[in-house]
Amino acid sequence: MQPSDPLREQMIAQYDAMSAQLQQAARYVLEHPEEVALVSMREVARLAGVQPATMTRLAKFLGLPGYDELRAQHAAALRQRGDGFAAKVRQRVDEGSGRGASDTASHMLQGLSAQLAKLCEPDALRQLEGTATRLRSARKVYVLGLRSCHAVAWHFHYVMTLLGERSVHLDGPGGTGGDGLIRATSEDVLLVISIKPYAKDALELAQLAKDKGVGIVSITDSEVSPLVGMSAQTILCPTETDSFFHTLTPALAVSEVLCSLLAEFDRPQTLEALQQADEHLSHLNTYSTAIPRRQ
Amino acid sequence: MQPSDPLREQMIAQYDAMSAQLQQAARYVLEHPEEVALVSMREVARLAGVQPATMTRLAKFLGLPGYDELRAQHAAALRQRGDGFAAKVRQRVDEGSGRGASDTASHMLQGLSAQLAKLCEPDALRQLEGTATRLRSARKVYVLGLRSCHAVAWHFHYVMTLLGERSVHLDGPGGTGGDGLIRATSEDVLLVISIKPYAKDALELAQLAKDKGVGIVSITDSEVSPLVGMSAQTILCPTETDSFFHTLTPALAVSEVLCSLLAEFDRPQTLEALQQADEHLSHLNTYSTAIPRRQ
DNA sequence: ATTTTAATGATTTATTTGTTGCAAACATCT
DNA sequence: AGATGTTTGCAACAAATAAATCATTAAAAT
């Protein structure tokens, strides 16, 4: 963000030499420099998830006399930003007049940003809430998304897996994806994600599920999507870009919001489930705890 | 400076009704709003040349519960200025006076929208462009994303597959994911996506690839991500939400932008590749052409 | 001129802050 | 294994903080 902030650079440079807790503290400071300037040390520590003492230790590790100096530097940086405001705008204009790639990228990102903002409209929120409610009451949640929608389906399933064991992902090698539905009942719900062009297999599987009495909810792209007719709840999200492809970013955002709503519904249970997942994964040594040597 | 700061306007409006000391305090606050946010009340009082108690009285005079609220408001204003681009979007956040789920959803979506807007800043655009350039010149592009990042990796790979045959997805059943690298050379590039907590396997595979001379580019979440050190190009994207989970929406957006930039680079070839894909898929009868019967 | 009212200054009080010392837990290396 | 050095969490501390209280002063009204 500020390439010319010496303290920042020092933290990045010395990051590898820090202990785990120090790294966690440093990471938060790097990512939330304003907070360091604006709130108390204990509060920063709380937000960073470390002991208050660790913040002091971080300051000393960086060669500063104490935490106050750390805050002072961040405060100074924040003060300067008021002045440097004009410079930033100028920089943007310079570049904005420009050529090619950055322009395309910026335009596309702004479009996506606007699409997400649009999802905040009352209609969309109602759909989200309705769908979350329906999913909440399900015994099992089957998740189906083929081809381009695989990414969204899988991610939803992945998060739901961390949360409990109600989720079944309808996908598998050798075309066995549909087998998950063998014992599906009317107590279950199928979340199907599909956008134009709609994959035939997805529609057929959804129809099959519906015939078995499974409740259908869907994330799709249009009022006239084939999914709308067979779904008890539908969330519509935009997919258009000015590029060649349809975007799945709004759909992924929607699925993440659904996960959050479901998680938020029963916080204690969610926390317990997440802790279980943590333990399991740490036993499996899945994640890199210490940062490996840099090259 | 801030025409839409209600507290500011209130102070100006009520200025005449204040006592001499209160006016002096208010004047300083109006002229040095950053200081109010950044230093203690007593210090502000000293700088303003009034008694500490006067600052408390000023806050109460303005109808606030106490000085803390005065500082909180100035801090919030300062925070927003930092976000710059996203500020516009952020303004609406507090409007939701609401209850429950819709509120959570709306808040989260607005946050995501702001994060995408932030990616339009010059720094991020530079990273995007640099990475796209690096990917463009690669003979083959290997794509690696494990666990939560699988969704992004797979989607990138999927789109790249429609575009040509340069993409290899490093994933597979039975832990065979790394096998794709067997014939990787220094002409190739590995795109690795990983966010905290970083999957050990992903880091190890990336390191292996690097040792083979493969160029590394990455999408990750922090300056101090272990990927930064081993990558020729890195795109940083935010992952924080106020929910339990990290979001992958910005990462997906970034990957879609990368795809677009690559596609845009050679439009004729892209169009041809897409037409081929269309033909292939229509021969396979993959997509539902007619909208099936509604129920 | 005297009372009343508001404003300002000084003092006190209960919190909160940043720091430090110490013991348990941890990893590391013979 | 056992010993050693580091890292980490906890609790106690002194300093500083914001607010509440009381005393004094200045101005306004009678």
Structure commentary:
Chains A, B: GO terms for molecular function: carbohydrate derivative binding; DNA binding; DNA-binding transcription factor activity. The structure is a homodimer of 295-residue chains. Chain A has 295 residues and is an alpha/beta fold. Chain A has two domains: 6-83, Winged helix-like DNA-binding domain superfamily/Winged helix DNA-binding domain (Arc Repressor Mutant, subunit A, Orthogonal Bundle), CATH 1.10.10.10; 117-283, 3-Layer(aba) Sandwich (Rossmann fold), CATH 3.40.50. The first copy, chain A, has helices spanning 6-14, 20-31, 33-38, 41-48, 52-61, 67-83, 85-96, 100-118, 122-136, 150-163, 200-211, 226-230, 249-265, 267-283, and strands at 141-145, 167-169, 189-193, 215-220, 233-236. In chain A, strands 2-1-3-4-5 form a five-stranded parallel sheet, sandwiched between helices. The longest helix of chain A has 19 residues, at 100-118. Chain A is elongated and about 70 Å long. Chains A and B meet through helix 2, helix 3, helix 6, helix 7 and helix 8 of A and helix 3, helix 6, helix 8, helix 9 and helix 10 of B. The structure holds a DNA duplex (30 and 30 nucleotides).
